[in-house]
Design goal:
mainly beta; Immunoglobulin-like; 8-stranded mixed sheet; 5-stranded mixed sheet; 48 strands
């Protein structure tokens, strides 16, 4: 008995000791004894152990084992395989447990274990409560366009949800228990879907709870238009009214920009504003003094800012308007000009509503009875300008062919077009002219303060105008015009203060034909004025004596010059007697070599010319040589230039004598040569020369004549020489072979 009694006392002491320890080391669990948890939400509670705890354990009372344990100083983590059910957080002596899927009325226990092998526990119980329902609309009103898709969105909370229902006009449209958010979808919404829609949410757990929200659906749609009936009127009627009715108003019923469009086929002609007041019934368009060009399709348009099913922002309807009238002759001009020697034809077109049945041309006078022509009439689609827009209308085309015009003429004609409404007539005038001939035999003589310009024009030039173009190096260009008067020679004086470039053009209604360009350089004005002042200071009698002496010497010099010239021409004629055509073309720079004649000098210019104003010696004043020829060519030029020109100064060392003979190729004696000019094929296949001997008197043929009277000279002003500042030296360029040159080398003509 004694040992048993002793053991009982020992056990009692141990229990008392444990109780004492528990009184000094208490555990805290909160919330406790119950934790209210919303339905479907996790449960969390805190477990705080006393100081000196070794481990904290989560378990369910009555179950064997525990869920997991956290050791003081160890890792604060839920075992990997249990992380879908639990969570944990460690904050010193406090540990926060999370039950992610709590079950109602379940008791959870927290156990704290200490180093002295003592334990403490404390429980808390799950009290799951329903989550009251609520609806939180993101917007109350939904605005959509007719034909679009729409979705009403119901965002709600609550648990457990029994159902979510969409209600329209007290009728349940659809319901669900799980969808979040709950959508009410519309496809290709129509205007009939306009109205209020209610989303109702019900929770049935430990009671029934309901929440709802109403949404407004607004459907926008455009108006519907209806135009009047098709209309046919006669051209010239005072007024035509087209109407457009609003058959059904749109939503909203606020309209802007009521207007009309005029179409011909698929081409928009013009936009027209409605010229009448807009009413609730519609609007209209008034057209005044209509023509056949007012015919077409008229479309009325209006908008309330809402597109239709096809995406058109403006709603429309159309009506057809037909205006009947006599044909319209599409004549762009009343005067036509033909060129003598050219084929001439003119074309005219006409359209009409109804279509044109015939289209022709007749002469108005009897002055041109011998004027013949042919006509060709064709039915086709004609391009017409209708209110600044090009469209195609069915009509007729008339071609009048005069053939090759043989002479000048003037005549008037009448175009006649007919349809079922009536006949249209229009008068036109036709004239034939020669194309302008290039001015020729141009002579420029320079004085101290002005220059004299002289030229010749073709006879019968009364229908032409001569234009003298002056290009200044400073200031604007100038054009002087001189009407043709069938005079042989035209002269004019020009005052200039700086270097200028001159070009002369012949113009008429057919076009323009221009000469080459000429550069005129102004001399030393100060030197001239000083010399002039010195001369004027002499006494009158001395001046008269000097003038008389100079006049006598000039007459004597002219007599000697003419006598010498006659002898030279005689020798030159015998030298040139051997020239004949051959197979090598004698070429100029840009122009063929042929007789200088008014007909041959015609050039085909169209419109305005754009001359090269950097030409000093123009192409007509020099010659070029085809590769491979060994002959020496030179000829009379038809231009003038000062020898102080850079282009001329470069050529002075190349010149052998003052008679103007140039070597076109270097020979075996090493003589200097003139720089070759660009070669260009002759335009006339007959313009060739040869050195073969022919009988005397047959040296020159009509189409290859070269003589001093028919070909102008190259006039060079020797500015470096003293004497009369207007002194002129005429250089003649000759054509001869090397053999002839050797034969005449020692003759007077050659050396001079």
């Amino acid at each position: 008995m004694a040992p048993v009694h002793l053991e009982m006392k020992t056990a009692t002491c141990v229990l008392l000791l444990i109780h004492f320890i528990r009184q000094t080391q208490s555990i805290i669990v909160e919330p406790s004894p119950d934790v209210n948890v919303s339905y479907g939400k996790p449960m969390y509670f805190n477990c705080t152990c006393s100081t000196g705890w070794k481990a904290v354990v989560l378990r369910v009372p009555g179950e064997i084992g525990f869920k997991f344990a956290i050791f003081n100083g160890g890792s604060c983590q839920v075992p990997f395989e249990k992380r879908t059910h639990f969570s944990v957080g460690c904050y010193g002596d406090k540990t926060k447990f999370g039950i992610l899927q709590p079950v109602d009325n379940t008791t959870w226990q927290c156990l704290c274990s200490y180093h002295d092998n003592s334990d403490e526990t404390m429980n808390t119980r799950v009290n799951r409560i329903p989550e009251l329902p609520s609806v939180s609309p993101q917007k109350q009103t939904y605005v959509v366009k007719e034909g679009e898709d729409a979705s009403l969105s119901c965002h709600f909370t609550g648990a457990p949800i029994q159902n979510v229902t969409w209600i329209h006009n007290n009728k349940a449209l659809k319901w669900s228990t799980t969808n979040q958010p709950y959508l009410l979808n519309f496809q290709n919404v129509s205007r009939a879907a306009t109205g209020n829609y209610t989303c109702e949410v019900t929770v049935n757990y430990k009671g029934t709870y309901t929440a709802s929200e109403t949404f407004n659906l607004v459907v926008l749609y455009p108006p519907t238009l209806k135009s009047g009936n098709d209309t046919t009127e006669i051209e010239g009627i005072a007024m035509v009214t087209l109407t457009c009715e609003i058959a059904e108003h749109g939503n909203p019923a606020n309209y802007s920009n009521p207007h009309w469009q005029h179409w011909i086929g698929d081409i928009l002609i013009r936009n027209l504003s409605s010229n009448s007041l807009m009413t609730t019934q519609g609007f209209s368009l008034i057209l005044k003094s209509v023509t056949i060009y007012d015919s077409g399709r008229y479309v009325c348009l209006i908008s309330n800012g809402v597109p239709d099913y096809s995406g058109n922002w403006e709603q429309s309807d159309d009506t057809e308007l037909t205006i009947q009238g006599i044909p319209q002759i599409l004549q762009t001009q009343k005067e036509y000009y033909a060129q003598v020697g050219k084929v001439f034809l003119i074309k005219h077109e006409c359209v009409g509503i109804p279509e044109t049945s015939s289209f022709g041309i007749e002469k108005n006078n009897t002055l041109s009875e011998l004027l013949l022509y042919n006509t060709t009439e064709t039915i086709k689609f004609i391009k017409v300008r209708v209110y600044d827009t090009t469209v195609e209308m069915r009509g007729r085309s008339l071609e009048t062919n005069f053939g090759t015009v043989k002479d000048r003429f003037k005549s008037s004609f009448q175009l006649i077009a007919t349809n079922s409404i009536g006949t249209a007539k229009q008068t036109l005038f036709v004239e034939a002219h020669d194309f302008p001939s290039e001015p020729f035999h141009i002579h420029i003589e320079k004085y101290s303060s002005h220059i004299l310009v002289e030229w010749e024009g073709a006879i019968l030039d009364s229908d032409m105008v001569y234009e003298l173009l002056i290009k200044n190096y400073s200031g604007d260009d100038k054009i002087f015009r001189y009407p043709g008067s069938s005079s042989k020679i035209y002269k004019t004086n020009l005052i200039f203060s700086d270097d200028i470039i001159i070009q002369i053009c012949t113009t008429n209604v057919l076009g323009k034909n221009c000469s080459s360009t000429f550069k005129v350089k102004r001399g030393d004005k100060a030197k001239y004025e000083a010399a002039l002042s010195g001369e004027m200071s002499k006494t009158t009698w001395v001046a008269l004596v000097v003038v008389g002496a100079i006049g006598f010497l000039n007459i004597l010099a002219c007599a000697v010059f003419l006598t010498s010239r006659k002898r030279k021409n005689t020798r030159k004629s015998s030298t040139l007697s051997s020239l004949k055509r051959h197979n090598y073309s004698l070429e100029r720079n840009n122009y063929a070599l042929h007789r200088v004649d008014s007909k041959d000098q015609r050039k085909d210019y169209s419109g305005n010319t754009n001359p090269t104003f950097e030409t000093y010696l123009t192409p007509d004043s020099m010659t070029s040589q085809k590769a491979g020829l060994s002959q020496q060519f030179s000829m009379d030029g038809n231009e003038y230039a000062s020898v102080d020109d850079p282009a001329i100064l470069k050529m002075r060392p190349k010149r052998r004598h003052h008679n103007g003979l140039y070597d076109m190729n270097r020979n075996s004696n090493g003589k200097a040569e003139v720089p070759n000019l660009p070669a260009r094929p002759n335009q006339d296949e007959n313009a060739y020369l040869t050195t073969e001997s022919v009988p005397h008197g047959e040296e020159w043929e009509n189409d290859a004549t070269i003589n001093s009277s028919g070909s102008p000279s190259l006039l060079l002003e020797m500015a470096s020489e003293t004497g009369d500042e207007n002194r002129e030296i005429t250089q003649y360029l000759t054509c001869m072979t090397e053999n002839e040159k050797e034969t005449l080398k020692n003759s007077d003509w050659w050396t001079h």
